[in-house]
Design brief:
5-stranded parallel beta sheet; about 120 residues; 15 strands
Length: about 120
């Protein structure tokens, strides 16, 4: 995705990343998931979000990351989950948030991290 790219997923859309897929979002990229969207990342998927990326999940969105998935958010990234968003991380997930990252979870959001999950927020 190039600068100012916008990936919009409408209701009931399904975005599936298979093993070893790489989704790279560069500065000012926007990934918008609307009601009932499903983002599924399978083993060894890598979602890389660089400076000023915005991942917005609205109304009942589900982000499912399976074993060994890596979600990397760098400088000034914003992960916003609104209204009943569900972020499910299973064994051996790594969520890395670097300086000035913002993880905002609003009303009734659910962050589920299972055994061996790692949520790292650096200074």
């Amino acid at each position: 995705m190039k600068f100012q790219d916008v990936l919009i997923m409408k209701p009931q859309d399904v975005f599936i990343m298979k093993p070893q897929d790489v989704l790279i979002m560069k500065p000012q990229d926007v990934l918008i998931m609307k009601p009932q969207d499903v983002l599924i990342m399978k083993s060894q998927d890598v979602l890389i979000m660089k400076s000023q990326d915005v991942l917005i999940m609205k109304f009942q969105d589900v982000l499912i990351m399976k074993p060994q998935d890596v979600l990397i958010m760098k400088f000034q990234d914003v992960l916003i989950m609104k209204f009943q968003g569900v972020l499910i991380m299973k064994s051996q997930y790594v969520l890395i948030m670097k300086p000035q990252d913002v993880l905002t979870m609003k009303s009734q959001d659910v962050l589920i991290m299972k055994p061996q999950d790692v949520l790292i927020m650096k200074p």
